[in-house]
Amino acid sequence: MAMLKTFLLVLLAYIAYRFIFGFVVPVTKATRNVRRQFKAAQEQMEEQMRAQQGYQPGETQVNANGSANQQGSAREIKKDYIDFEEIRD
After folding, report:
1. Residues of 20-56 as b/e, b for ≥16 C-beta within 10 angstroms?
2. pTM score > 0.70 for this model?
3. Which of 1, 4, 46, 84 is the most buried (most CB within 10 A)?
């Protein structure tokens, strides 16, 4: 009877070991790796957006909803515009 208990305990320990190191550890590593890649991709996209918008600290940025976002000083971004003249025939 004691030998059967020992055998079952060893078998259970082996199954637990295989489960932990064959499933739990790889899934944990993969999850950590995916999170790191998403974070790097997000930072890269934010950097590209800043570069496209000509972002510099201290400038006023206009959000998609039209509200201004002050960062740093009270400077405003000068906007280019074209004078419009109506030409009549």
Report:
1. eeeeeeeeeeeeeeeeeeeeeeeeeeeeeeeeeeeee
2. no
3. 46
pLDDT of 53-66, one tens digit each? 875 555 555 555 55
Residue 83 within a domain: no
72, part of any domain: no
Mean pLDDT of the chain: 81
Q: How far apart are CA 31 and CA 25, in angstroms?
A: 10
Give residue for tokens 């991709």: 41
Q: What domain range includes position 41?
A: 27-54
Task: Specify the number of domains making up the chain.
Answer: 1
Report how far residue 70's alpha carbon sits from residue 51's, in angstroms, rounded to the nearest whole number. Answer: 18
